Structure formats: structure tokens, C-alpha cells
Amino acid sequence: MKARVHIHPKPGVLDPQGKAIGNALKGLGFAGIGDVRQGKLIELDLADSDPAAARARVEDMCRQLLANPVIEDYAIEID
Amino acid sequence: MKARVHIHPKPGVLDPQGKAIGNALKGLGFAGIGDVRQGKLIELDLADSDPAAARARVEDMCRQLLANPVIEDYAIEID
């Protein structure tokens, strides 16, 4: 079973990496680019066979290690 | 229009960040974890109104700046 965790900075939290990417894109000539945010994507191979149990476990992993809930939001996808 | 770019290391490319996350999760007591890979997630606000044109532009951005096509794969989502 595969889990994908999408982690991105909460709205309102400063994202200097995203800003740098936005500026670099403008420097390359791309117009019409508004806000750019950079987050993380973590893919895990899990031994679980029950999707609900896997999601609960990944939720635990996010809270304990993968995301910083003060400044980051996360979304979990199981397939 | 919003675009999300998912960038992850190609299969077979060494991913030390992913390995470190996997080891940390095992250290926290999570069992049954196989391969862990870390990638990037970039969200862009675009002024385009045509989804096909937006996708083509983001494709260009990926090739020129966002992804390193030698070691990374990317997927584009437009909504």
C-alpha cells in the first residue's frame, strides 16, 4: 500500500523558497505568475492492507515527524 | 488558475532525505515501512484562463527551472 503526504506552508506563513522560485520564473520571462508556494511530497510504502488503518498511522507520522503543524498543513492520499 | 507540480526523484536515484525519514520513522516505533521518497510540491497561481495553455506553460517552467529531468520526474495538475 502506498501513501503520499503533501505538506505545504499554511496560508499567511512566509515562504521564502516559493518567493525565490516565483522571482526566478519571472526572470526567465514567464509572465502572469501570482503566488508561488513550495511544499514537500513524501511517498511511503506501507505493509498495511487496510486503507483506514494506514491513513490513521500516516496521520500519526505526520503529527510526530513529517509535518510541523504550527506552520504547515498536510494532506494524505492512500492508494 | 492554480497549478500544482509534483516533483520526485526517479526510481533508482538515491534519495538520502527519504532514507533519513524512513529511519527516523522506524526509530519512533513505526513498523512495516518500506521505501520512503521525498519530493517537492510547488503550487503556482497563474493568470492563464485556458487549462491547456497553462499546462504547456508549466511544462516549460518544469523543463527550464522547477525540475532536474536527469534525476527527477514531475507531474502537473491544473485546477
Provide a brief overview of the structure.
Chain A is an alpha+beta fold and 79 residues long.
Topology record:
The structure is a homodimer of 79-residue chains.
Chain A: E1 2-9, H1 16-27, E2 33-46, H2 51-66, E3 72-78
Antiparallel strand pairs in A: 1-2, 1-3
Looking at this protein, list some descriptive labels.
homodimer, alpha+beta, about 35% strand, 3 strands, about 80 residues, three-stranded antiparallel sheet, 2 helices, about 35% helix
Description of the molecule:
- Two copies of one chain form a homodimer.
- The first copy, chain A, has 79 residues and is of the alpha+beta class.
- Chain A has a single domain (2-78), classed as Mth169, Chain: A.
- The first copy, chain A, has two helices and three strands.
- Chain A has helices at 16-27, 51-66, and strands at 2-9, 33-46, 72-78.
- The first copy, chain A, has a three-stranded antiparallel beta sheet with strand order 2-1-3.
- The mean pLDDT of chain A is 95.
- Chain A binds chain B through residues 6-8, 18, 21-22, 24-25, 28, 30-48, 57, 60-61, 64-66, and chain B through 6-8, 18, 21-22, 24-25, 28, 30-48, 57, 60-61, 64-66.
Low-pLDDT residue intervals, each spanning 5 or more residues of chain A: none
CATH class of chain A: Alpha Beta
Oligomer: homodimer
Largest sheet of chain A: 3 strands, antiparallel
Spatial order of the strands in the main sheet of chain A?
2-1-3
- Rg on CA atoms of chain A, Å: 16 Å
The CATH architecture term of chain A is 2-Layer Sandwich
Class per helix and strand makeup of chain A = alpha+beta
> Which fold name is given in CATH as the topology of chain A?
Mth169, Chain: A
- Please give the most extensive interface between any two protein chains, plus how many residues each contributes: A-B, 34 and 34 residues
Question: What is the arithmetic mean of pLDDT of chain A?
Answer: 95
Kindly give the count of domains of chain A.
1
Which outline of chain A best applies?
elongated
CATH homologous superfamily caption of chain A: Phosphoribosylformylglycinamidine synthase subunit PurS
Number of strands of chain A: 3
